[in-house]
Amino acid sequence: MKHLVLLGGGYGGMRLMKRLLNSSELPSDVQITLIDKLPYHCLKTEYYALAAGTISDHHIRVPFPEHPQLQVKYGEVTGLDLAGKQIHLLDDETVTYDELVIGLGCEDKYHNVPGADEYTLSIQSVDKSRETYQVLNNLPHNGVVGVVGAGLSGVELASELRESRSDLNIKLFDRGPIILNGFKPRLSNYVQNWFIQHGVEVINNSNITRVEKNVLYNHDTAIECDAIVWTAGIQPNKLVRELDVEKDAQGRVKLTKYHHLPNDENVFVVGDCASMPFSPSAQLAEEQAEQISDILLKKWRNEPMPELEEIKLKGVMGSLGKKSGFGTMGGASLIGRVPRLLKSGILWLYKYQN
């Protein structure tokens, strides 16, 4: 009997289970165990809407698959013993494995800004997104919300919050000279102007130097806020950061072209914890999982390793509320209603397929 353990039921874990459990090539002597804290898969790409209050909790849940060769174990991972091939859980239970796929996701990265961890809200987990919603929903009329970080998460949160609470004063802090500075000027200008037209104050070239209770400091100038949400960077899960393996400058695990550790072909890493030539995303995790599933099936059947194609991402889609959006596809920039509809369609298709 071969035992594959999946740590985390995120986008990578879900795609891996779907591919393996639906494959006619899955050997009957393979047992798969998924370990996750939650009893369902969560659509992390929609946490911003949950925090803003424009969707309800059940809209972001997808049930885990059911299959005779799949066991789902609910628990919190406290330690990884790669040498002993053991996973330690919070209740002192130990799970052994033959092959392991680590997909534990990411956490906020605070860049050593004093007080940021203690005094800001987060949308990096479903629990924290729920807490953020409670705080934002209970703010008084004309309350001030500071959103630190104008990447995809910050942009989507600020725009969705504008629709959810039109009475709030929203300040979006961006380190660059213009929002989404890494995209083409046509797209960046469109997003920046959307915020200006909808009454969101964009503070470009910002540098948050410290945070106190209801106060953040931009270039050491104090700005009072009723709530502060941090969306200014991510880092791999703490358990992965503490692993004694080779990592890149962002703390992500370096892998072979087959997505496993260079010195351990039985340990794979997928998603936000993996060092890849792309920024972490749900799409990248799914593409990795596709290849890992092919590799495992070949390995279990004692067949030569597959020829892996270079991963190519299809593009990026972001929302500006429910009626507008932005994105890239095939090198082209998309703005307006079309990318918003495309994003909604992709989300519907994902939920339907799973």
From TrEMBL:
<keyword id="KW-0274">FAD</keyword>
<dbReference type="Pfam" id="PF07992">
    <property type="entry name" value="Pyr_redox_2"/>
</dbReference>
<keyword id="KW-0285">Flavoprotein</keyword>
<dbReference type="GO" id="GO:0016491">
    <property type="term" value="F:oxidoreductase activity"/>
</dbReference>
<protein>
    <submittedName>
        <fullName>NAD(P)/FAD-dependent oxidoreductase</fullName>
        <ecNumber>1.6.5.-</ecNumber>
    </submittedName>
</protein>
<feature type="domain" description="FAD/NAD(P)-binding">
    <location>
        <begin position="3"/>
        <end position="288"/>
    </location>
</feature>
<comment type="similarity">
    <text>Belongs to the NADH dehydrogenase family.</text>
</comment>
<dbReference type="InterPro" id="IPR051169">
    <property type="entry name" value="NADH-Q_oxidoreductase"/>
</dbReference>
<keyword id="KW-0560">Oxidoreductase</keyword>
<dbReference type="InterPro" id="IPR036188">
    <property type="entry name" value="FAD/NAD-bd_sf"/>
</dbReference>
<dbReference type="InterPro" id="IPR023753">
    <property type="entry name" value="FAD/NAD-binding_dom"/>
</dbReference>
